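Illustration: UDP-3-O-acyl-N-acetylglucosamine deacetylase.
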Amino acid sequence: MRAPAGWSHREGTLARELTVSGHGLHTGRRVNVRILPGTASGPRGIVFRRIQDGGVLAEFAVNPALRRAQPLCTMLEAADGVRVRTVEHLLASLLACEIDRATVELDAEEVPILDGSAQPWLDEIHACGRIELPGAKRFIRVLRPVRIADGAGTRDERSMSIEPAAAYEMSVRNDLKGFGALRWDGALTPASFAGEIAPSRSYGRLKWAIPAIAAGYLRGMPILRGARLSCTAAIVGNRVLGGMRVPDEFVRHRVLDLVGDMAMAGAPLLGRVSALRPSHEMNYRLVAALLADRDAWEWAEFAG
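Result:
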């Protein structure tokens, strides 16, 4: 039996080291990132390593158990309190580029936002290239439905579910005042992610940004301190300054965030995710509920 269409049947990693610099969306701080290729004998999955003054502050593998609630991003926190925030775009890009083993080294707390999309990450990863490792690529096969919901029957209802499927599929619905109902349906593959999802940017209404930043300072919590027009699709009224990059850009960015948050599970899924008004919190709840139900999934590998 072969791997799902569009995916490799062997694990992969970067062909060489990748380096990127930028600023954090929420902290506004400058950060240097180095992504080191993994090895067949090294740890599975993606490992984050925080460094400071040449020393290692903490090192931990991506795991939803390390996730801590934060506004407008996904953050992981090690047992000693060392954090890495806004990991979702990078995790989505590594998963979609089939980089199954790597170590992400940062000299600050937040992964750089770059242009607000996953496109710069894809460009850098493709420039480095991918090499295959000897091990079989792993998928998480969904065996039975799992569902979560908030506000059922109200105007603000949010719901998410995952059910068995032969491929990684998504159906995401969202709405935004002035833009109507938005939807993306499709099979998630490296090709579809690159062509339809990766270019979509983080977005927000300008009238909300300044109060959010001020509230963050009052609470001692970094929120949008690094937000710029260069890294955000800024909404004024019923339009986007400079226009949209792709049709229905807002719902496609929800898909991007969902792919990154579900990547905390440690592998691509063989299942169909349906989402109504997803958020980082809801995404986390879904992946946590799936993994907690050990009868709802299994590891799957495919021969070449």
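Reading the tokens back as a structure: The chain has a mean pLDDT of 95.
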